[in-house]
Amino acid sequence: MQRFGIWVIVGVLALVLGGGLQTGQAQTQDQCRTCHRELLEDTPSQKYVNDVHFQKGISCAGCHGGDPTQADMDAAMDPKKGYIGVPKGAQITQTCNACHANESRMAQWASSIDTIQFQRFETSVHGKADVATCVSCHDVHEIRSSRDPQSPTYPTREVFLCARCHADPAYMRKFNPALPTDQLEKYWTSRHGQRLQQGDTRVATCSDCHTAHTIYPPKDPRSSVYAVNVPIMCARCHSDPAYMKPYGIPTNQYDLYASTAHGRALLEKHDTGAPACNDCHGNHGAMPPGVQTLSHVCGLCHTLNAEYFSKSPHAAAFEKKGLPQCEACHGNHEVPTTSLDQLQPEAPVFMCRKCHSMDDKGTQVARMMYETIRRLVILEEEARRLLTAAEQKGMDVADAWFQLRDVHNAYLKARTVVHTSDPAEVQKVVEPAVQTAEQARTAGQRALAEFDFRRKGFAFATLWITLLVIALYLKIRQIEARSRDKRLKP
Amino acid sequence: MWRRIYRWLDERYQLQALVEFMSHKYVPMHRHTIWYYFGGVSLFLFLVQVTTGILLLMYYRVGEDASYESVRFIMSQVRFGWLIRSIHSWGANLMILTVFIHMFSVYFTRAYRKPRELTWVSGFLLLVLALFFGFTGYLLPWNQLAFFATRVGTEIVGSVPAIGHELVRILRGGEEVSGATLARFFGLHVALLPGIFTILLTLHLLFIQRQGIAEPESWAGRPESEKRRMPFFPNFLLRDLLLWLIVLNVLAFLAVFYPWELGPKADPFAPAPPGIKPEWYFLFMYQTLKILPAKVFFLEGEFVGVLFFTLGGLLWMTVPFWEGRLGKYRNEIAHLIGWIVLVYIATMTLWGFRS
C-alpha cells in the first residue's frame, strides 16, 4: 500500500513536471484516464478502452462531467465544472440523453442511431424509474455495438440479458407477479431457440418480436405483440423470401392467413378473439404443430368440432392414413371461410372429394347432411327477406327476429355437428329450427299482409270519411240556403 | 224512423227545449271566423285521446319489466293495437298544436278581454295540463328516447335553488329515473291529470256557453243589421263536425303511413343516444336553457331559464288583468307582445330542431 502511494506521487509529479505524456490526441490528454487507467488501474477505466464511446473519442468526463484536462484531482473533479460522480437513477438516462437524444450531436459522430430511443423507452413497461435504465441492458464502461458478439445485446447474448430479470421469479414478482418466468426455457425448445444455439444469429430473439425500446404489455394495442400486430410482426421475417431463403420454408403464410376467416376477423375486424400466429404455433416456444397435435390446437377454440370429429368414423381413418385431422380438410394458413357448398358433391369446392369417390357412402352422407342444412338455410333466407321487407314498411316484427336468431344458432350448430359425419345427428339439430324458421316466415308474411290491410283499410276509411264530409257539406249548404230563402221571403 | 225516435225521446226528456236553446246561440261571421273552429278541434282531439287512452289501458302494464313489453304487445299482437297507439301518440301532438293555435288566435283577436278573463285563464291552464300530459305520457312506453328525455327534463327542475334536489327526488321517486318514476308518471297521466283537466275543461266550456262566442271588437257600436251571424246549431256544429272528420282522416293517415315507433327498450346503463331532444312542444324551452350560460350573475343558468318561463307563463296567463293598464296604445302593445312571443317560440323551436 505504501509502495502504491509512492508510485502515485511519482506519477503525478512526472505528469506535472514533464507534461510529456500529452501527445496531442484526445485520449492522451485525458487526465481521468491517466490517473484511473495508468496509475490506479481500476476496472472501469480498464474496460472503457473497449467501449464504443471511447473509440469515438468521448472521455470519462463525457458522462461523469468535470475537467479532464486538469491533472489536479480536485480541479478535474470539481462539481463547479459539472462533475457529477457516478450517475444514479434518472441521472443515468439524462447523461445518455445528453447525446443520444440530440440529433446534431449524434451527427458529429456520424451515428445512424435514432435519437428518440429514450422517448420511446420512457413510455414502455421498462421506462418506469425503478425498473431499468440504459445501463441495465447496455452495460457500463464497456458499451459495444449490438453487432459486436461481445455486446450483451448481440442475439446470442440478448436472450440471457433479458432472462437475467425475466427468468428470476423473485425479482419479477416485484413488478408483475402474473408474468411467467419460463420464457427462456420455452425459447430453447422453439425452432428459433434451437437454431440460435447452433449459432444462427438471424433467427428471432427477444427484441425482434418485442422491440428493444418500445416494449408494452401484450394487451396494449401499441405493443408489437398485441394480437392484431402479431401476424405482421412475424411476417417481417417470414414473408421476406430473401431473408427466409436459407431455411427453405414458404413465405406466403401471411398472405394466406390474411384472406381467411381467422385473418379477416383479426386484421380487419380487430377481433382479438381470433387466432394470431402465436395461438397455433406458441409464442416463446414457437414451433409448427405436429400432425397428431393439430386437432388439439384447433380444438382449443373449436371445442365441439374437435369432440364430434374424435367420435366420428373419420378419426380412426385419418389416424391410420397419418392425415392431420383438421388440416386435411380445412388447410392450415389458408383456412378458407367455410361454406355449406363444401358438403355438396356437385360443387367445385366439395371437400370430401380428396378421399371419396362420387358414388361411395361418404359422398352420400355428405349429400344428406348438405340437403338437410340447405333446407334450413333456404327457409332462413326467405324468412329474413320477408321480415326485412316488413320492417322496412314500418311493421313490428321483433319477435320473429328473435326466432330467426335461434334459427341461425341452430344452423351454426348444425355446421358443427357435421363433424360427426352422421346425418341423423344433423337432422336432430335442424328439424326444430325448421319449424321455428317456418313460424318466422309466417310472421313475415302476416306482417306484410297486415301492411296491405292497413293501406286498404285506410283507403276504405278515407272513402267513407270523404263521403260523409261531402254529405255534411251538402247538408250545410242546404240548411244555409233554406235560411237565406226564409230571410228573403217578404 | 228518426223522427219517431226523436219524438219518443222528446216526450220524455224535452229535447225540443234544448234545441231551442241551442238554436238561439249564434256564432259571429267575419274574416277571422276560421279561428273559432280550433277550440272545437282541440276538444275533439281531447276526446280522441280519452278514447284511445282507455283502450290502451286495457293492455298497458306499468313497470320497468312490463311497460315496454306491453306496448310492444299492443303494437304487434293486439288487433288494431298499432292503430290505437299511433293515433294516441299523433293525437297528443296534434292536440297540443291546435291548443297553441287556439290560444294565439284568442290572443290576437283580443277575445281574452273582459268579460272573458276566466275563460282565458282556464284555457291557459288547460294548455299547461296538456303539456304535462305530454311529458308524463312520453315516458310510459319505457323506451330509450323516453328514458333519456325524461332524465334531461327532470334534471332541469334540480336547478331551483335550495329545494331543487328534493323536487327532482319527488318527481322521480328517487335519485334516478326508474320504475318508481314510471309508476308516478303513470298515476299522473291516467288519474290525476285527467281529473283536473276534466274539471277545468267543464268550467272552460261553461264559461263559453254562458257568455257566448266573442265578437270582434270592431263590431262594437255597429247596427245589428251589419253583424253577420250563423246559428250555432246546426250550422256551426255541422261545420265543426266536418272539420273533425277531416282531422280524423289526417290522424288515420299519420298512423298508417308514419306509425309511431317504439325503438329500443330503456337501458339506464346505456350511453345517452346522440342528439337527444324533447318533444317539439318543449323545444323552445329546452333550446333557451341550452344557450344560457352556466351562471347568470350569481344564479345558475338553468334556474334563470326556469324562472324566466315561470314568470313569462304567469304574465301570459294574467294578461287580461294587466293589459288594460297599458293606456291608449294597449292594442298595439298587446299585439306586439303577442308577435314577440310567437316569433320567439317559433325561432327557438326551429333552432332546437336544427341544432
Structure description:
The complex is a heterodimer of chains A (490) and B (355). Chain A is mainly α and 490 residues long. Chain A contains 28 helices and no strands. Chain A has helices at residues 2-18, 26-29, 31-39, 43-48, 52-55, 61-64, 73-76, 90-100, 103-108, 117-123, 134-138, 155-166, 169-173, 183-189, 191-197, 206-210, 230-238, 241-244, 253-258, 261-268, 277-281, 294-299, 303-311, 313-321, 325-330, 361-392, 398-417, 423-488. The longest helix of chain A is centred in the last third of the chain and has 66 residues, at 423-488. Chain A starts with a helix and ends with a helix. Chain B has 2 domains: 18-143 and 179-219 and 228-270, Cytochrome Bc1 Complex, Chain C (Up-down Bundle), CATH 1.20.810.10; 277-355, no CATH class. Chain B is built from 14 helices and 4 strands. In chain B, the strands form 2 sheets. In chain B, strands 1-2 form a two-stranded antiparallel ribbon. Chain B has a two-stranded antiparallel sheet with strand order 3-4. In chain B, helix 4 (67-76) crosses helix 5. Chain B is globular, with a radius of gyration of 23 Å. The model of chain B has no long low-confidence stretch (mean pLDDT 92). The chains are: A mainly alpha (490), B mainly alpha (355). At the A-B interface, helix 28 of A face helix 4 and helix 10 of B.
